[in-house]
Structure formats: C-alpha cells, structure tokens
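Final report, closing paragraph on structural work. Over the funding period we assembled a curated collection of sequence-structure pairs, and we close with a single example.
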Amino acid sequence: MGQFLAIGLATRVSAKKTEVDESQLDIEQLQEEMKAKLYYAPEIYVANDNNDSSYEFILKDDVLYPQLIPFLKTIYIRFSMRTRYITTI
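Its predicted structure, as stored:
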C-alpha cells in the first residue's frame, strides 16, 4: 500500500471566452461563479481579458512570492519528518 498527497497551486486560471459568452456572463459574473463553485479568491488574482480566446486570472506577485517559499518549507518539512515505510524483499 502507498500513501500520497496531491497539492495543487493554482497560479493561473483560465476560462474560454466562447464558453463564458454562451453562459451569458461578464467577467465579474464569471468570477462570482468561480468563487461559488471553486476555491477561488478573486482578491488575490489579476483578471486579464486581453487574450482573444480566454479570460486569464493570474495570482498576484505580492501574494505568490512572499508566501510560496514559506509554504513550501513548512509543507516539505512535514513530509520529510514522517515515518518512511520501506519493504525489503
């Protein structure tokens, strides 16, 4: 048996403009839907609709850089201190 943990860091989120337009949503309504259905905090992302095919939401640098390294240090130390299960044949 194995143990694993998957962690995803969403630094960039995008939505196809054609699908958003079919749903008759503007960018603010799209963000409200994402907030309701996903773990999405609009205040930490920069909304960008300059792309012709999709809306992009990019994690703000002032959130990413000061918080990413401390987070990774904390999470990886917890993993490295756990008991390791090794099977020998």
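Residues 12-80 form one domain. The mean pLDDT is 83. We thank the funder for supporting this effort.
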